[in-house]
Design brief:
By secondary structure, this protein is of the alpha+beta class. It is about 50% helix and about 20% strand. It is built from 25 helices and 26 strands. The chain has a seven-stranded mixed beta sheet with strand order 14-26-25-24-15-22-23, with helices on both faces. A six-stranded antiparallel beta sheet has the order 6-5-7-13-8-11, with no helix packed on it. Helix 6 packs antiparallel against helix 12 and helix 11 runs parallel beside helix 24. It is elongated.
Length: about 750
């Protein structure tokens, strides 16, 4: 299966996005399609053996929309000077039209040539002339409405189009009958309703466009952080180039005050870099030869030469933007409910409007009243606010997460994270920094300590466990050569083995000794060292223990605060570790975790998650994303920490690029606030439609409460603005985060 994100043009409401989504999902070869109204794009998973991009784009066209090609960057629909002038002109025309059509009703001074009592023909012609520009102004609405009706995906534009065209045609008919001498029709002209409905819909779109851009700001900042140009070293000379000209392997130069242009590896120099945009860590990071650099980082104080490794779409920033955009295109469970409702909503409204129209005629109302009520029901019930309720809140929250070093892969996680009642932590590299130091070596061989550590460090250089870093660091610090190693094998939960000089070296915990039937006479010594908070490593050569090495880890400075915050939220915390009980208890006591499960293998971690879920627990697993991947994949919410620039891990749902556990608490807070905001938006959207449709039908006319198409269109705009403003309140949540 292949995945592509297409930019889509022509969507105006949730019925549009839902209609396109349903149409795409019906097509053979498409595994899954998700359409995002706010971001104006569609994520499509498809079988490349059956389909290609051209065929998918043709499906989009068949559904009544236009594909603008593959998503490349987040585009801001900032209002041009021409659009603003256009809007101002039509605002003035709307005021003039309303003055002419209704001024005489409240005795405002009006020219006799266009006064309905003194010159009815001049009055009607003036209204028609002023209405025609609005028809042109709203031609895109009318065109989309007709097109979507033809494609059997009626939407908000369909409702407006039917209402506007009906009132305009009836007004033309009334004008014709008046000219023929039937003055009764002159009192039932709806030219101004036609124009003002279009004007208010355009007003809503104008405000909506500005609001959508605000929701993308946090994501958009990621796109803009890389510089436009950079300096490369070519044949010993410096040359300024654009980012597009940089190729893999090029030597790029960064001077103090400049931003890193592309992801790469430092080959010369050292400096302090600001990587806060990706890690959330405000403190500058010291970088030297051999370290990686991330595009967009600010070089504070050093001269660097680095080799370009990841450019264009491969860069960390591009991956982050892609992840965030994909996340906004996934549907949270709560959003799916709104989608289902709004998907049928337009069709139901059209049926209600038609029934109302004929009911008015049956009970003896005149045709003018029937058509006016018909248009009012269509316009007032437009599901714009319903369609904006969920995606706006999701995108604001996704942007907030991204700007705080939290990458959420699926928007459903923003709903689930706030519901978790149990958080499981891996110990090494998660609750601790994973930067272990060798605290003691007990040598049972004739070799020197350095010779043993050289053996261990050489083999651990082929491994993946955080403990191995303590030994590779030792080799580097003491300038010891890495020996040639053969036949290495990582045994998850046990240790690592390898051959040096044709001799097998076994390194790991006590379980690896049992696995290879090696007699352990040093269990008491292990217990003694473990009671001091050490992790214990056995070293065996040819089935004989030659050393016990103890290493110490440092607890993350925020770990205790995180556990305290989770306790306040009444969320149970559990620590899982492959370490022995004594070491685990020491760490647990230091940070306040009450439940520990020591001596577990990776598969046992996954089983622990499954067992808790079987007890109806909603489990969040927080690990390093390597040995913990089975548990991360099985959790309700899998959170990976300490991944640095490797943001494409499959096991977890969430990546904390800041390596700061506080982000985990912030994720839960953001989740709770987002779900609350979405529920508020949906309530007001449903409440509005439930209240206004009956009023539009005329149920309250007996007590003097009624509305016409113009008031209906204004009310529709107000409902959308209410939802937009409520969703944008989430941007203020930043002050509440830790």
């Amino acid at each position: 299966m292949k995945k592509i994100i297409l930019s889509i043009d022509g969507m105006t409401c949730s019925a549009c996005s839902n209609g396109l989504e349903k149409y795409l999902n019906k097509q053979k070869g498409i595994e899954n399609a998700s359409v995002n109204l706010v971001m104006a794009n569609a994520t499509v998973e498809y079988d490349e053996k059956i389909l290609n991009i051209d065929k998918i784009e043709n499906f989009v066209k068949e559904a009544g929309f236009k594909s603008l090609g593959e998503f490349k960057e987040i585009k801001f629909e900032s209002k041009t000077k021409k659009q603003k002038i256009e809007f101002i002109i039509f605002s003035i025309l709307a005021v003039i039209l309303m003055y002419i059509s209704m001024g005489h009703m409240i005795n405002l001074p009006t020219l006799k040539i266009i006064h309905p009592h003194t010159n009815i023909i001049g009055y009607m012609i003036c209204l028609l002339i002023l209405t025609i520009p609005f028809i042109v102004y709203g031609f895109d609405i009318l065109k989309n409405g007709y097109k979507n009706l033809i494609h059997k995906t009626p939407n908000m534009d369909t409702l407006v189009s039917i209402g506007v065209i009906s009132s305009f045609l009836y007004s033309l008919y009334g004008m014709y009958m008046t000219i023929k001498g039937n003055l009764e029709y002159s009192m039932n002209l709806y030219f101004e309703s036609t124009a003002i409905v279009i004007y208010f819909v355009k007003l809503g779109r104008y405000i909506d466009g500005i609001s959508k851009d605000k929701t993308k700001e946090a994501i958009g900042k990621l796109v803009k952080i890389t510089p436009d140009r950079a300096t490369i070293k070519l044949n010993g000379q410096e040359k300024e180039v654009t980012l597009d000209e940089i190729k893999k392997g090029d030597i790029v130069i960064s001077k103090p005050g400049e931003k890193i242009a592309v992801d790469g590896i430092i080959i010369s120099g050292n400096a302090h870099l600001d990587e806060s945009f990706i890690t959330g860590e405000s403190k500058p990071v010291s970088k030297k030869t051999g370290n990686t650099v991330i595009a967009g980082s600010m070089n504070y104080d050093g001269y660097l030469e680095y080799k370009a490794e990841k450019i264009g779409k491969e860069s960390t920033i591009s991956e982050i933007v892609k992840l965030v955009v994909e996340a906004t295109n996934t549907k949270a469970p709560i959003a799916k409910v709104a989608d289902i409702v709004s998907g049928y909503f337009v069709q139901i409204v059209i049926i209600i409007a038609i029934i109302t129209f004929f009911a008015y005629l049956i009970i003896g109302k005149n045709f003018a009243d029937a058509i006016s009520t018909f248009v009012t029901v269509l316009v007032i019930a437009c599901p714009c606010s319903l369609g904006l309720a969920t995606p706006l809140a999701i995108i604001v929250s996704e942007g907030l997460c991204a700007s705080n070093g939290i990458l959420v892969k699926k928007s459903e996680i923003l709903e689930n994270a706030g519901k978790v009642d149990t958080v499981i932590f891996d110990k090494t590299g998660t609750l601790t920094y994973g930067k272990l130091k060798i605290s003691q070596i007990i040598n049972y061989s004739e070799m020197s300590d350095n010779e043993i550590l050289q053996l261990v460090g050489s083999i651990e250089s082929k491994g993946t466990h955080p403990i191995g870093k303590a030994f590779t660091d030792y080799l580097e610090e003491n300038k010891l050569q890495v020996l040639e190693v053969e036949n290495t094998e990582n045994i998850a939960g046990y240790g690592i083995i390898g051959k040096i000089n044709k001799q097998q070296i076994i390194i790991g915990n006590a379980k690896i000794l049992k696995k290879y039937n090696i007699q352990n006479k040093y269990e008491e010594k292990e217990k003694e060292l473990a009671e001091k908070g050490n992790s214990i490593i056995y070293v065996a050569k040819e089935n004989k223990i030659i050393a016990i090495i103890s290493v110490n880890d440092v607890v993350r400075k925020n770990a205790k605060q995180v556990i305290e915050q989770l306790d306040k939220m009444k969320i149970q915390t559990i620590m899982l570790t492959g370490d022995n009980k004594q070491t685990a208890e020491k760490i647990a006591k230091e940070i306040g975790i009450k439940t520990i499960i020591p001596n577990v293998l990776p598969i046992q971690k996954a089983n622990t998650v499954k067992e808790l879920k079987e007890k109806n627990k909603l489990v969040m697993m927080c690990g390093d994303g390597i040995n913990d991947s089975p548990a991360l994949a099985n959790a309700t919410v899998g959170v990976s920490i300490n991944t640095g620039t490797d943001i494409a891990m499959d096991a977890s749902n969430v990546i904390l690029t800041s390596n700061n556990l506080i982000s985990l608490v912030n994720l839960i807070v953001i989740s709770k606030k987002t779900v609350k905001n979405i529920k508020q938006n949906l309530f007001w959207a449903f409440f509005y439609n439930s209240l206004m449709i009956p009023i539009g039908i005329g149920i309250l006319k007996p007590i003097g409460i009624s509305i016409n198409p113009m008031i209906a269109s204004f009310a529709m705009v107000c409902s959308s603005i209410t939802v937009i403003l409520n969703a944008l309140r989430l941007t203020k949540m930043k002050k509440m985060l830790l």
